[in-house]
Amino acid sequence: MEKNKIMTTMAVVGRPNVGKSTLFNLLSETRKAVVKDEPGVTRDILFENAELWGKHYEIIDTGGLTDADDTISIKIKEHVVEFLKTVDFLLVVMDGRMGLVPEDRDIIRIAKESGKPFIIAVNKIDKVSELDTLTAEFYQFGTDVVGCSFEQRLGLDPLLQWIYDRVEQAPPQYEDAFVLSIVGKPNVGKSSLCNRLLGQNRLLVSDIAGTTTDAVDVPFTYNDKNYVLIDTAGLRRTSRRFDDVEIISAFKTERSIRNSELVLLVIDGTLGPTDQDAKILEMIQEEHKGVVLVVNKSDIGEDEMDAYRKTVREQVARQFHFYTDIPIVFISALTGRGLGDLFKTIEDVRSKLYFRISTRELNDFFIEVIRQAPSPVYGTKDVKFYYLTQTQQFPPSFIAFANHPDGVDNSYRRFLAKKIKERWALEGIPVRIFVMKSRGR
Description:
Layout: E1 8-14, H1 20-28, E2 46-52, E3 55-61, H2 71-83, E4 89-95, H3 102-114, E5 118-123, H4 131-135, E6 144-147, H5 156-166, H6 172-175, E7 178-184, H7 190-198, E8 216-222, E9 225-231, H8 244-259, E10 262-268, H9 275-286, E11 290-296, H10 298-304, H11 308-319, E12 328-330, H12 339-353, H13 359-370, E13 377-378, E14 381-382, E15 385-390, E16 397-402, H14 410-424, E17 432-437
Parallel strand pairs: 1-3, 1-4, 4-5, 5-6, 7-9, 7-10, 10-11, 11-12, 16-17
Antiparallel strand pairs: 2-3, 8-9, 13-14, 15-16
Helix pairs in contact: 2-8
């Protein structure tokens, strides 16, 4: 598995039911885009990494654009239009069977106003003999047009070539860089920290919550090591995301977490961790990313509170009880205090994320560990383990082979993960244990 890269992004847009999701699943080689039983704007933008002939990019499926005047349709259209400003190029899907309709003209106008390169893919043309006839009227817009059938895999080569020509490999300054994202609630000092790390005021800083609405990727070097820093908008609770900009910002923040190698979760040390901070940490865990808890405004906290660091650590232990070994660094983005400790911790976690253990060493350890706790039981039979091996995934993940994998519950997996962390000093990173049935047993 390759390390995360900064990738070109392509959005698929069009009316409902023209085949956008079919194309999304085809290009991403997933079945992620499905029809939802419940309406909702947050379910209408999907992200997935894709690979085309050795080039990696991110494909984004958007909600269907219509002129309907119901609330959901209006919101979807507003959000998609706003979101198109953040991508690199567009793929506009039309329905060849239905032909050009007024809503299509509006979508072409939106695509042009976005200022992004785009191609029109006229879908649902199932016969080669109909390609020229059914695409003719779409050429009037003066842009690239290709006729195809996503279901029949017809006419895809020109479309794939167009995409390939516009997908850029990671810029040289990104190739060996370690990708960090900075996340947290609004107004905890994320942009101030980003500016401090970069040594310049690259990002707008304000006391008003919600100032940052975009995710900004900035390469920089610290102690001769290359990094890419992603500053993101503050994540509010879903119920408090009042306007279009905040909802789009939340999408981009979640995407930034997924595209980073290590997440810096920033909290306000004068307030301590909150329920929303815990939810953000759960989101980071779901993406299996390394994380460092950055306690900002510690200069103020130490002035105002006795035993400040002890108090914050106790609060973290209570609020983040599900992540008992999260690394904690106390800083002041305003004064720069603690930045040396922060980068020392970042590099420590970085080394753990890509740590490799030989299969022989793992199994010598495994034999000792499984003797320390009663074997899991599957029905009336004991679960027998045969061997353990590390996968190619990052952060470190392991596969244990057993006779009855279904008998290994989450508590036993946590026991194994804890022992692995203790043995190889991997505290602070999300170690995963998979259990598979041993072949031939």
